[in-house]
Every structure is written in structure tokens, then in C-alpha cells.
Amino acid sequence: MENIYIRPATIEDAASVSQIQYEALKKFHAFYSGFLATHPRNILPITTKAAINNPKNIFLVAVDAATDEVVGFVRYAIVPEKQPEEENEAKGKEKEDAKSQLDRSQPEFANLFAPKEHVKKLWEEFSTRDDEMDACYEGVAKGQKHYYIKHLMISPTHQRRGIGAKLLSTVLAKSDAEHLPSFLTSSVEAHPLYTKLGFADFGPDFRIDNERWARRIMEVEEGLGVDENKRLKDPCIGLFEVENSQRTTSTQRTNLSRPSSTIRTMASDSDYMAFLDKANKQRDAGRDEAHTEESTQPSKQVRTETVESGVRVPEQLKKVDAYYMSETDEPFEPVALNWKGASSGEWPGNDEFASLIASGSKPDIETLSEKSFDPRSQYSDVIKAVRAAVAASDSKVNESDVEVKVYRVEVGHSRVEYWVIALDGAEGKIVGLRAKAIES
């Protein structure tokens, strides 16, 4: 990791923090602009400045020492213990706790988050998920004093460099030193990081089918003769939001969808680094043991080919910047292979697919449904890109109608590949994306 240091944020950092948040949530802006009267690009600068000015919030920023650029931030608050009478007074009133972005009762913010008038009822229906998540969080917090981590975001140009872990570890060291639990809401994208740092889920996942809601907005507007969001569904095809709540205590890190389990204690940054050092030694020892065992058995190594000579790779696949997360994080790479059956809508069987991608030793292959491969919609951008590649090849094909399949290919000891593919009937080929994974 580069020379990154952590410091408290100042009001001068508001513009940088706002821009990081805007870029990190970019894929959802078109969807929420269908609901809100004010576009997110105009909301975030105001809410960020107000949040930094609010003494209830604590902001830390990650700064690149070489350029003095703010490249990430974490926002949290220490929520005081609530007495029973305070909890009763809070019922029926707008919450002004750590989860609030700002005091929306202030005149200058009164209409900032207002929905467009013609979709107001639909927005109220959509927003019930927030109430359910709040109830779940409050039911576990039980009024005790705790840390609430509202945002952890890294600039897209600096992601996957350990900056998020460094920011979050700084907060956890403080909460552990005070023996206080910490709570946060986990997105699909951030879930692997939180798991690595000892978090576990509790309660259900809260899922939004953005494409379905986009269609409902369009239906309402069509009935009213409004064509403001005529093509809203296009950027929302295959788009999902999946979140759950997570908590920590001084002796465990737990989360909203699975039973809690004791993980570790962290009293300081030095304790955390010692924990990581120990974990790395255990991991390396395990790899050495696995290597010794493997060396006594025949090893089956398979080389696969993703792009056939002379076959055009769709531009939509070249632009994908996504990683498959396993014991190593590997990029998704374009796939373009000739397949005569594509013209008639015929999918290759496992043996046929093995012959397409490998020569010599044949790998073991199983076919997965889209849902079983990606139950949390973590790779929705990958699947969307594959669909877009097929639709771009044939103007008669609707992107949302493109079928996607996933082939899981075993290529060696603990080594697998995931091939997310679709049939390009117009050009008689298979297109998609492949990622490697380690599954020991």
C-alpha cells in the first residue's frame, strides 16, 4: 500500500469526501434520480458539509502523502446509552441519531430529499425497507452505548489497496479500547472486507430489485402521460442493492443474517497488526502443508483459453473492471469463442464446453444458475455487461431477455474458474467473462 496516513477530517475536506461518495455510488444515481426531485449530485455536497459540521459525527480521512489527496473516508458516531424514558420520547419523532444524514427539519434541507410529487406514494412504499432495517438495528442495539459506522468509502482509483481496512481498523481499535460494540450496515461490495476484519451477520438480508422498481416508476409515469424517465430501466437492468446490518462487541464481531460467533478481541492498532501477522503465518503454514500433501498425489493442471484467434471481443466486456473474491481476488477477463450452436440458441454441454476452452486434459465442469453463482447480487455489473455485449451485437435482442449461464471449471488443486457467458446468436459465438479463484 502507498504511503497513506489517517487524520481527522476538516470542513475543507467536504468537497473531496462528497466526490468520493458520489463516485462510489455512481451506478445507483440514475435510479434514485427517478424518485427524487433533486439529483444526488446536488444533494451530496450539501449533506456532506452539514454532516462534517455536526459535532455528533466523527470523520476520518485517508490521505495520499505523495499528493496530499483525500482518497477515502470513514464516518462514525458514538451513540450514548438511552434510558427507557428517552426511548419512549423518541417514538413517533424523526430520529436525530448517528444514522441521520442531517437534521432535515432545518428549512434549507426541508425539501432536499423530497420525492417527485407524482411518485410520492411509490417512494413511501419503497422506503419501508429503511424502517425495517432501523427496527432490526435498534432491536439489537437495545439502547446500549455503541459506535455506529455510517460510511466507509474509498475513491474508485484507490480501491483494493488496503485503505478501507486501515480506516476501519482505526475506528475498531477505539471501540475495542472502550469495550463498546460497533454497528454498521454492510453492502454486498464491502461484505468481504468486514468478514476479514471479524464481522459476522445477524438477521435477514435487505434486498432491492432496482430494475423492478424502475419499471414501476415508468408504469406510473406512463399512466400519467409523463415521459420524464422513459428509459430509466436501461441503466437499471440487472441492478440490485443488498444490505444487512452488522455489529461488534469487544469480544466478537457479528452481523444481521447468520448466527453470531466469537471471533477476536482488538484493543489497539498494535494488537490488530499482531493478529494479522499471526493469521498470515497460519495461512502460510497451511499452504505449505497443502503443498506437501499435493506433491504426493498426481496433480491435474488445466490451461484454458478465453479468446479464440480471430474472434472479436465486444467492447462492453473490455470495459469491465470487476474482481471475483475468494482466497485471492482475481479480475474478470473477456471471453469470446466460436460456437456454432449459438445461432440456434443451443448451449454447450459440460463436455462440449470443456473442449471449447481447453485442449489435452479435460477439466471437471458443473453448470450453475445465475442465482446460485451470485445470491447477493455482488456481481450484477458483470452479468449486466455480458447481457449488454449480446444486445449490442443484435438490435433485435432486448438486453433484459438475454440468458446468462455460469460454468464452474476445476483446473487444479483448489483452483477453479467461473465462466459467466451468454450466446451471441448473431455472430455464432459465446461471449462473457471469466475469473479465477482459489477454493482450498
In short:
The protein has 440 residues and is α+β, with helices and mostly antiparallel strands. The protein has 14 helices and 16 strands.
Would you kindly provide a written description of the structure presented here, covering whatever features stand out?
The protein is α+β, with helices and mostly antiparallel strands. It has 2 domains: 4-266, Aminopeptidase; 315-438, Nuclease A inhibitor-like (Nuia, 3-Layer(aba) Sandwich), CATH 3.40.1460.10. 35% of the residues lie in helices and 23% in strands. The protein contains 14 helices and 16 strands. The strands form 3 sheets. Strands 1, 2, 3, 4, 5, 6, 7, 8 and 9 form a 9-stranded mixed β-sheet that branches. α1 (14-24) packs across α3 (40-53). The chain is globular, with a radius of gyration of 24 Å. The two termini are 26 Å apart. Mean pLDDT is 79; it is low at 91-105, 249-276 and 286-298.
